[in-house]
Amino acid sequence: MAAAQGGSVVSYAGKVDFLKLQNGSDIRGVAVAGVEGEPVNLTEPVTEAIAVAFAAWLLNKKEADGLRRLRISVGHDSRISAHKLQNAVTHGITAAGHDILQFGLASTPAMFNSTLTEDEKNHLPVDGGIMITASHLPYNRNDDNQKEREDASRGVVTNVDYMSIYASDLVQAVRKSAGGKEEPLDGLHIVVDAGNGAGGFFVDKVLKPLGAVTTGSQFLEPDGLFPNHIPNPEDKTAMMAITQAVLDNKADLGIIFDTDVDRSAAVDSSGHELNRNRLIALMAAIVLEEHPGTTVVTDSVTSDGLTVFIENKLGGKHHRFKRGYKNVIDEAIRLNSVGEESHLAMETSGHGALKENHWLDDGAYLMVKLLNKLAAARTLGSSIGSKVLTDLVDGLEEAAVTVEIRLKIDQNHADLKGGSFRDYGEAVLRHLENAIAKDSDLHKAPKNYEGVRVSGYGGWFLLRLSLHDPVLPLNIEAQSKDDAIKLGLAVLAAVSEFSALDVTALSKFVRQ
């Protein structure tokens, strides 16, 4: 791969299939050796080449503004490979004649934000940013998230404590919601679980300045080996850890982040988890108080109970779209562009973005919206703690049984006949759709943007094709195990003739 500025060409990395590193909007690869079957492919030369190419692409976009020298920020989470990849990015971009702002340990949302922050003293805003992270994936993985925002001599490297700037903006947002009170969370006990990722800043730089008690917060120290639990708000062990911390410390609220802080979840004082559908319901309740009637965009696996809650109780509109936080956010932006007001886009994974926050995917900002509610209640002299949040999701109907079963496609099976797993998966979905049409107990969703979604037996299922992998994830929700099994049996009967599809896990589920 080569990239050029001012006519000079820098060659990197030898023969590398860079397209294999592309994963949706990320560049994703293995950066550390040690896991069998996962050879290192995101090396320093490869990272340097990608960074130079990003700078060349960005410069081309900025040409209309007359720019010839860019300012690009680079930050990283607690990955053990972060420093060497940051150095590779810095070397490539400065060698191409552009300036680098090194943020060090940072969150992905902060990197987005650095393209917006007006701060001349700290050389902000930047023209683009690069985040080195792999969210909750294993320690050996890494991604480059690259975000857009006069001479060919070597660029300048400047170290900037951007996380303090970013956190200060979060603090001011909470103070503003509380009428300018300096410590609107005074007396509230809030514990944070950062999972040894980049979210530890939230304790010292956000909660303490707002007056909160934070004793019992855990795993705040960055450690890329993640010795305590996977930093993932969807992970049962992680949610058990923050729940236990809340109960042990008799805290009012618990907050948990993923590695790079673009996802989050909460736990109320009674140990009730506020994640997945519940977190979307809570955010929808807050946003619909501020913007009555607005449309809430979610991913495809949200529950029917959430739809009823948003539309019947809150008076909003639920627009269920495709999986993938970028898909959800882009759909909300599209709806606004055609005249349908939308202020919230969220995935069940904990990704969430608000129109008021420039549609930035920001787990810390979501938690600030919860803190705003707590601060407002505190200002009124209320001592009910997190009950003000729990009350907002009162009436959300939740399924008794919720399962996800992943049906893998064997790409080497003769049934594929040399074709792609995607074509094979689409054939499975078409066959399922036809089979459902013949079953009077099952009803296809009238509006659906991904896979086959069907209601019946007091519940629903969704079979869809994974965004990136040879997998058909099956989500089932029902009010009883028997009803969930009936839905599973309907899927199994329809797809069992597809020999390249591994239905072992589904067969085991329906035999329970």
TrEMBL record:
UniProt xrefs under CDD domains: PMM_PGM
Enzyme Commission designation: 5.4.2.2
Family according to the record: Belongs to the phosphohexose mutase family.
Domain Alpha-D-phosphohexomutase alpha/beta/alpha: 23-142, 166-271, 276-379
Protein name according to UniProt: phosphoglucomutase (alpha-D-glucose-1,6-bisphosphate-dependent)
Quaternary structure and interacting proteins, as annotated: Monomer.
Cofactors that this protein relies on: Mg(2+)
MF (Gene Ontology): metal ion binding; phosphoglucomutase activity
UniProtKB keywords: Carbohydrate metabolism, Glucose metabolism, Isomerase, Magnesium, Metal-binding, Phosphoprotein
Catalysed reactions, as listed in the record: alpha-D-glucose 1-phosphate = alpha-D-glucose 6-phosphate; alpha-D-glucose 1,6-bisphosphate + L-seryl-[protein] = O-phospho-L-seryl-[protein] + alpha-D-glucose 6-phosphate; O-phospho-L-seryl-[protein] + alpha-D-glucose 1-phosphate = alpha-D-glucose 1,6-bisphosphate + L-seryl-[protein]
Family matches, as Gene3D superfamilies: Alpha-D-Glucose-1,6-Bisphosphate, subunit A, domain 3, Alpha-D-phosphohexomutase, C-terminal domain
EC category name: isomerase
Superkingdom of origin organism: Eukaryota
Pfam annotation, one family: PGM_PMM_I
GO BP terms in the entry: glucose metabolic process
Species this protein is from: Urochloa decumbens
